[in-house]
Each structure stands twice: as structure tokens, then as C-alpha cells.
Amino acid sequence: MEPLTLISATPSPFARMNRIALTLKSIPFTLKNEIPWESDTETPKYNPLEKLPILLFPDGRKPVYDSAHIQDYIVAKYADREPKLITGDVDQDLEIRQIVVLSEGCLDAIVLNRWEGRRDAAVQSKLWMDRQNRKIDGAMRAFNDMVVERQNAGKDYLVGEELTIADIAAVVTVGWVEWAGLREGWGEKYPVLKRWFDGLDARKEFAETRPVMFDLTQKVV
């Protein structure tokens, strides 16, 4: 199998979800890192929304973009490769995709908040930043409630009996909150979530894909 290409940015939690899924399924791929906001980016060539990640194919198939859609593509197109990363039950798989949506929404709020924070202090919108912070806090509460409920039921994973893209999404999102230092002391506030997160984040596929900051040299906002 010829390797696929995943275009990413080194700190991207969105691409991290896809990297973990591809690695778990033993799908060969090459990671191509770039900064989508800088003038020499190739991102618009493959995604009209100019966002990463983007999955490219050696046979010339159309690129696939948006991390949630890439996850769906991976589990559907490579369904013959273990692990499945979904359950095969319609209701459970819809729940899985809802958790992925929650994760992406939280990550979007973090990105919007951080970009607003890069603007000159005189023009920053506190109302806007407060709104994004409410989304982040709401997602963290939701993740904690999910884990508590599942562990009270004697379950290790958010949906079903095995690791799915829901667990990947939640761990990546919580991991980015921790990596970015957005919520100091969150582990003391949510100890059950912290233990669950630490257990999965220590797995090889997660540990090898942790974010690395890039050097943004061009003005974006």
C-alpha cells in the first residue's frame, strides 16, 4: 500500500486525531507539516477553506479535509483494518460522532480565543473571549461527566467496549487544554477525567503525536 499524505501543523490537535487513527489501523502515511497562515502554504491548493488537516492520496483521488470527516473516511474506507474505531451499532456510532463534534467545537473555541489574544490589547473583545471560554469550560465538564458515568458503569471507554474515535477526540482535546496551559489545576477539579486521560495519553500512539509548537513569523491578526 502506497503511503497517504497527511498535511498538518506541528501543534495541531485536529491532525493529531487523524494521526492516531491512521497509526492504530497501521495505514502507512507521510506527515507533511506546514503553517497554513503563512504566505508560502500549499493549503489552499487542496482545501478552499485553507484549513488543516488534509489527507492526500497517491492515486490522485480528491483530497479529504476537516479532521472529523477524515476520521469518518478512515473508519469507513479502511473498515477491513483493525481496530474498527467505531462499534457498528447505529445509535452508538451516532453518539461517537457527537463526541467528535463536541471535541472539534472545543478546539475551535480554543483557537478563536488564542487568536483574539494575539490582537492588540486595545482592540481585543472580552465578550468574545468570555464566550469562547464558556465553550471550553462546558466541554471539559461534559468530558468529565461522560467519563464518570462510564466508569461508574464499569466501562473503560466512552462508547462501547473498545477504543473508538470518540476516545481519541476527547483525549486529544483535553490534552491540548493541558499542553496549552489553558486551565491550570483542571486535574484537581476533575480527578476522574485526569486519571482516564493519563491512562490513554500514555499509550504509544498518543504519546508519539503530542503537539509541538511552531514559530509563527508572519502577522495573522
TrEMBL record:
Domain annotation GST N-terminal: ranges: 2-82
Lineage summary: Eukaryota, Fungi, Dikarya, Ascomycota, Pezizomycotina
Domain of life of the organism encoding this protein: Eukaryota
GST C-terminal domain residues: 89-221
Signal sequence region: none
Protein name: Glutathione S-transferase domain-containing protein
Matches recorded under PROSITE patterns: GST_CTER (PS50405), GST_NTER (PS50404)
Organism: Paraphoma chrysanthemicola
Family: Belongs to the GST superfamily.
